[in-house]
């Protein structure tokens, strides 16, 4: 836990955790202000978790969330009011502390000189020069005050962003590249299903961002607030400006926990869990091991979501553990999906149905989770029948594994890069933006109709790298992405149905059928998932080694 002092009454910090509350209280703090919206990242505890831990120790709490880089004058004014009213000293936090410091600067602009604000923030480790320029310009960020410029700027240091940077460097080691990402940790998120199934330890899925970003790539540790594509410029939090020649957009998506009424208040307790959060995947495994009888419900929201098979993977691994412990016959398992089919590619459904029947799973399609009452252990679903009539169905549970609805990040949704649904609007083959020819997008944020998986990003990154270099005259051919995605469906510990497909649900196996038949459960596929894919991810994909991922090329 890092604390940065702005005054005797206020300190700011990057994201804090519920277990930090004892230290925060011991340090003398009386109040906590949260300036970070829920759902920005998979390792982020919800504010309700922070609030419960804080209030248990007598700390006052207040939720004043701001979209990164979008702190308003009104929020700065409200922050000042809170500082006047709350017991002191106060600790304010967000992802990095920048939003909290920005609110402080806007509030203090009425009382302190601008040079003093800059100096105090600088001593605390935050650059407020861009915010000061905004104050001077009455809320506008002047784009001619450019602090940083790079040939290629990549937004996002996740799987797609790191892989694209490495693929670019593999083709042109001298290329000037910067990655913009505020996170300190890079996660192998496909491993969280196995954490929730008791196979992996959570810590093995996390590496520091500093160690993950390729050598020679500049790391701008910040969040993007807005796009100015007609000026080839980005505005970062703190109102800083970065210019680019070519832009790659891959910040992932947002987990919308608040779309389900009551969920944020009970997530992580009362038997409610999700493998989509780093700190809750171990809780899933704990719940599974403790349940000897009762009802377990696994949910799936409307598409698109990342790793569309993950809701089922959690269910199958849990059922397998109950089978091994002898509890399967005393546990009712239900799968409640907003979709109309078990899996989107029909060829894989027969194998999955064999496990559904073997585990005694009850399927409910067209069921969307809309409300959770944690203390009463009741989950409410909206169901639309064949006649189009809507009804609400209450289902009691002992374990509820929730997959939240997933939406574009806020700064993408409101940008000129977005389509009508909020996703970045790109050509599905070249991954180039349909309006801005020097902008590309890949990974979860793109509006391509493929499965949102790390395997898709592995195939997309070389395509973007090649086509970007072609656009600046360093290649004389073009690359095409065929929509490849992969979903290793863990149907039991030791066996996987390896789903691989391209646009339109066309099967696209990577191996001969005699070696791994993806439509059938396979021990070799499990070996691939457990032993081979993690090092392939860290040492192959993220290092620019395009094993089984080199794109097909065509002359321009």
UniProtKB/TrEMBL annotation:
A Gene Ontology molecular function term of the record = FAD binding
Name its GO BP terms in alphabetical order. Answer: sulfide oxidation, using sulfide:quinone oxidoreductase
The alphabetized UniProt keywords are:
FAD, Flavoprotein, Oxidoreductase, Quinone, Transit peptide
Q: Where is the FAD/NAD(P)-binding domain?
A: 151-267
CDD domains registered for this protein in UniProt:
PTP-bact
Pfam families under this entry? BLH_phosphatase, Pyr_redox_2
Task: Tell me which residues make up the Beta-lactamase hydrolase-like protein phosphatase-like domain.
Answer: 3-109
Question: Which cofactor does the UniProt annotation name?
Answer: FAD
Source organism superkingdom: Bacteria
Its protein name is: TIGR01244 family phosphatase
- Give the species: Duganella fentianensis
């Amino acid at each position: 836990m890092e604390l940065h002092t702005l005054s005797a009454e206020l300190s700011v910090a990057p994201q804090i955790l519920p277990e930090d509350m004892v230290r925060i209280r011991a340090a003398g703090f009386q109040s906590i202000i949260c300036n970070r919206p829920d759902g920005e990242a998979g390792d982020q505890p919800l504010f309700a978790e922070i609030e419960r831990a804080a209030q248990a120790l007598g700390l006052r709490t207040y939720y004043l969330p701001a979209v990164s880089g979008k702190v308003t004058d009104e929020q700065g004014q409200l922050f000042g009011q809170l500082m006047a009213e709350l017991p002191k000293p106060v600790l304010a936090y967000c992802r990095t502390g920048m939003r909290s410091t920005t609110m402080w600067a806007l509030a203090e602009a009425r009382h302190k000189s601008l040079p003093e604000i800059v100096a105090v923030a600088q001593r605390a480790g935050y650059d407020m020069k861009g915010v000061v320029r905004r104050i001077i310009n009455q809320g506008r960020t002047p784009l001619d005050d450019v602090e940083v410029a790079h040939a290629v700027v990549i937004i996002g240091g996740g799987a797609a962003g790191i892989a694209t940077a490495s693929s670019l460097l593999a083709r042109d080691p001298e290329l000037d590249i910067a990655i913009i990402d505020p996170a300190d940790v890079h996660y192998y998120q496909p491993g969280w299903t196995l954490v929730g199934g008791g196979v992996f330890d959570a810590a093995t899925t996390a590496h520091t961002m500093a160690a993950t970003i390729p050598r020679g790539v500049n790391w701008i540790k910040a969040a993007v607030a807005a796009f100015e594509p007609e000026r080839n410029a980005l505005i970062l939090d703190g109102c800083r400006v970065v210019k680019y020649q070519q832009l790659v957009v891959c910040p992932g998506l947002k987990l919308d926990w608040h779309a389900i009424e009551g969920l944020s208040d009970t997530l992580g307790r009362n038997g409610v869990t999700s493998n989509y959060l780093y700190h809750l995947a171990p809780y899933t495994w704990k719940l599974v091991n403790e349940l000897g009888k009762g009802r377990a419900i696994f949910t799936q929201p409307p598409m698109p979501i990342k790793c569309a098979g993950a809701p089922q993977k959690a269910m199958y691994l849990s059922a397998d553990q109950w089978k091994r412990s002898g509890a399967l016959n005393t546990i009712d398992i239900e799968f409640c999906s907003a979709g109309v089919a078990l899996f989107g590619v029909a060829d894989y459904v027969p194998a999955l149905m064999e496990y559904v029947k073997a585990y005694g799973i009850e399927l409910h399609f067209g069921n969307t989770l809309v409300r959770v009452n944690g203390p009463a252990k009741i989950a409410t679903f909206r169901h639309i029948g064949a006649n189009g009539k809507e009804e609400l169905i209450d289902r009691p549970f002992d374990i509820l594994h929730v997959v939240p609805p997933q939406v574009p990040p806020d700064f993408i949704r409101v940008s000129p890069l977005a389509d009508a649904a909020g996703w970045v609007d790109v050509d599905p083959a070249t991954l180039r933006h349909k309006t801005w020819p020097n902008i590309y997008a890949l990974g979860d944020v793109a509006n391509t109709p493929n499965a949102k998986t790390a395997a898709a990003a592995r195939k997309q990154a070389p395509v973007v790298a090649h086509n970007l270099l072609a656009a600046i005259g360093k290649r004389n051919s073009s690359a095409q992405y065929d929509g490849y995605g992969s979903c290793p469906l863990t149907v039991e510990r030791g066996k996987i149905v390896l789903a691989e497909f391209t646009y339109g649900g066309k099967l696209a196996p990577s191996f001969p059928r005699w070696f791994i038949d993806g439509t059938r459960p396979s021990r070799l596929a499990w070996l691939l998932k457990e032993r081979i894919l993690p090092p392939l991810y860290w040492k192959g994909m993220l290092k620019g080694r395009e094993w089984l991922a080199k794109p097909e090329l065509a002359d321009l």
